[in-house]
Amino acid sequence: MSALGTVLLATMVLLGALTQRATGLGFALVAAPFLVLLTGPAVGVSLSNVLSASLCALVLVRTGRRTLWREVAVLAVPALLAVPLGVYVVRTLPEGPLLVAVGLMSVAAVAVVAVGRNRALLTGRGSAVVAGALAGFMNVTAGVGGPMVTAYAVSRRWPLPVFIPTAQATLLVLNVASLAGKGLPPLAATVWVVSGVALVTGLAAGELLSRRLGAARGLQLVIVVALAGGVATLVRGLVAL
């Protein structure tokens, strides 16, 4: 990876970790499209899964006392059932179509967050099944399972102090399951070190800013950056086609 690519990777991982600590969501939306651009769709999504799982575990340690574990289980079961389908798609699609799929799902995920942050998109008895299954599939294929969890949380009216740990626990399960199906990505040690340092730095910065950065402003930042990454990935896929 070039020096510029390494700097971009570190920046996106740091920004993603910061926003996720402050708002409960953001790492995959911000970082995953750029990781895909830098390392390819299969490796980039798997790297996002590794880093997201690590971040979720670290945030959960700090915020886990208010986790709704029953809701985690309700979402995780359909998500785990959808993981094998996502693994099959990743292993069978060529790079061009896979980039297009990742880009489209990333943009769709941003739209779900932008449109659904103030309204209930998933209502009724089957909402947890729909949200969980879509989160599991999108997490494996595009690294962006969080928006569907967010849509479900808004519909259930979870307050932010409850949403943050409950979302982390759910996404931790999804990312571990995704990696179990695909395996760890083959990357140079430098990439792992840079990613790890950026993740911890972003988490520490997010801890400090969580008291000052409003959830609404943080979410606006996530939407803007994530949309740019999703569109760039989509364009790269279209060019590859």
Number of beta strands: 0
Helix and strand sequence: HHHHHHHHHH
Low-confidence parts lasting 5 or more residues at pLDDT below 50?
Answer: none
Rounded mean pLDDT score:
81
Tell me the radius of gyration.
Answer: 16 Å
Number of helices: 10
Backbone shape: globular
Structural class label: mainly alpha
Measured as a percent range, the helix fraction is: over 70%
Largest sheet: none
Residue fraction in strands: under 5%
Head-to-tail CA distance between termini: 23 Å
Quickly count the domains.
1
Protein name: Probable membrane transporter protein
Family: Belongs to the 4-toluene sulfonate uptake permease (TSUP) (TC 2.A.102) family.
Pfam families: TauE (PF01925)
Main location: membrane
Describe the protein in words.
The chain is mostly helical and 241 residues long. The chain has one domain (3-240). The protein is 83% helix and 0% strand. The chain has ten helices and no strands. It has helices at 3-23, 27-39, 41-63, 69-92, 95-116, 127-142, 146-156, 160-182, 189-209, 215-240. Helix 4 (69-92) packs parallel to helix 8. The two termini are 23 Å apart. The mean pLDDT is 81.
Summarize this structure as a short list of keywords or feature phrases.
cell membrane; mainly alpha; transport; membrane; 10 helices; TM_pro_TauE-like; single chain; transmembrane
